[in-house]
Design goal:
37% of the residues lie in helices and 26% in strands. By secondary structure, the chain is α+β, with helices and mostly antiparallel strands. Helix 3 (49-70) packs across helix 4 (101-114) and helix 13 packs across helix 14. The protein binds zinc ion (ZN) (2 copies). One zinc ion is lined by residues 57, 61, 155, 162, 164, 166, 168.
Amino acid sequence: MVSAGELLARQDPKAARRAVAARVDGRIVDLSTPLPAEARPAPVMPGSPEALEILRHSTAHIMAEAVRALFPGVKVAIGPAIENGFYYDFDYERPFTPDDLPAIEQKMSEIIRANHPFQRREEDRLKAREYFARRGEDYKVELIDEIGDDTVSLYQQGEFVDLCRGPHLPSTGRVGAFKLTGVAGAYWRGDERNRMLSRIYGTAFFDKKALKRHLRLIEEAKKRDHRRLGRELDLFSFHEEVGAGLVVWHPRGAMLRYLIEEFERREHLRRGYQMVVGPQLLKRELWEKSGHFDNYRENMYFTEVEGAAYGIKPMNCLAHMLIYKSRVRSYRDLPLRYFELGLVHRHEKSGVLHGLTRVRAFTQDDAHILCRPDQVESEIQGVMDFVQEVMDIFGFDYSLELSTRPEKSIGSDEDWERATGALRAVLQKSGREFDINEGDGAFYGPKIDVKLTDALGRQWQCATIQCDFTLPERFDLTYVTPQGESARPVMLHRVILGSIERFIGVLIEHYAGAFPFWLAPEQVRVLTITDRADAWAREVHQALVAAGLRAELDLRNQKLGAKVREAQVMKVPYMVILGDREVEARRVTARLRSGKNLPAMPVEELVSRLAAENHPGAERERRASPQAPDAKV
Ligand SMILES: [Zn+2]
Ligand SMILES: [Zn+2]
């Protein structure tokens, strides 16, 4: 046996020196892992996502070592790499605070400078258990108790030993740059019945420049945090007494929802969808029939009505199928496209709830398309065109992923090939690049996932198109063919925005709260410099409202500067400021959110100008013509 690092060095000494780990037979191993002499490992190089993950997870170990050295009696729980960094959960006599971080960072720097190797060893499970028990590491003991194997793998750097599968960096000195970014409370295993632990977040990179760029983005993301802006813009709130993950929409937030939902209804009707509405509660037997009770029960809420068990819907599919089944369908009736802005409830652990982006009750822009096999491709094409147009309206770029058949799956090979082929054909025709997640489809069918990219370059899951072979089978959906025979329709589940709640969370951060004109809950604020302008202000306000614009009136007897600042904080797109001059000329002057002023004009002119801007496509048109007079709004 020869170490993976040694084998790499024989192939390419230069690459081997920079390598972080090695890939062999599809798995990633430490450079110190012994391999057969004939193995041909590939290097995992800095710059790859895998290398970054190893770096960050290794830095979590270093942080745990530092925390253990600084805070005697602390117990360490788990420390994974996450999307933009890592965390480690600790159980200490008090929660950690941001004030603790500098000392921990300093200790970590010492550990990194010492360049200790990360050493792996296999140990007898009971011996390892005894080791951690002796050290009071109850969480490690609990984890070991759940491992079925006789041996467990331990990693040691310096004096610190952790239970871990690995892989890790060859040594602590390979951490180029790191930063601890915050603290939070987190329940052990994300379950609120468990003890609250103290989580420390951090991030790490191979070089300082990348870290700096990342920290700048974090600063910007903080400023745009939709939970903060949601409060400042008076859009929504959460309440302990209501329950976690349940959103309360205030008038402005409800207006935002209404605008998006109206937009969606119009766009769906335009594309031949029919609106349907299903109930919140459906009998448990129906969930058993659909397979949700067996496969999705932990995510559902159940209740009882007059002795009968009901499930609160986590998905909208079932009622849509009952509508299909309510009469005999002919091949001529297909495709049928049922659209519902469906409110669903799903049990998410309290530990993963996050503002609007992870909630327990949300509305999906959900549709189910029932079509003939020969219509699948054109239906998928239609959905992709729909996605393209909607993303364009909101100004998002996006990426595409195709997920194919997993090992455990139902449906015939022929079904899978046909459906996957149709999805792939549409993706190829789009001319866009797409990733393939081999074996990542649902057990009941392949799917396309659409991930939008926001203004900070972050990706968010939005649309999905999913083929389903089970439900038509389970519910015995049929149609009559031209030959008078009975055939199975294909069922597509699809959403465009996904969860309206989450999409609004993303929109708030994408626009930093400055919504485009058509989406702004308040579009125009009319404010007065003096009460001599009150009558004219009322007239102007009335004219705006009569034209269908969302205008508000600020006649308060306060300094103009304060009134303007308030409108700015609320990110109102237009302010109409009226004083003696405007009253006398019976004109209006408008100020844009950007600070730019429009020339004085008759109120009719302002109204027609704003009314022309008051539709979803206006923003796209503006983006398309950078010469537009107020392109910077
Ligand atoms: Zn580890
Ligand atoms: Zn569905």
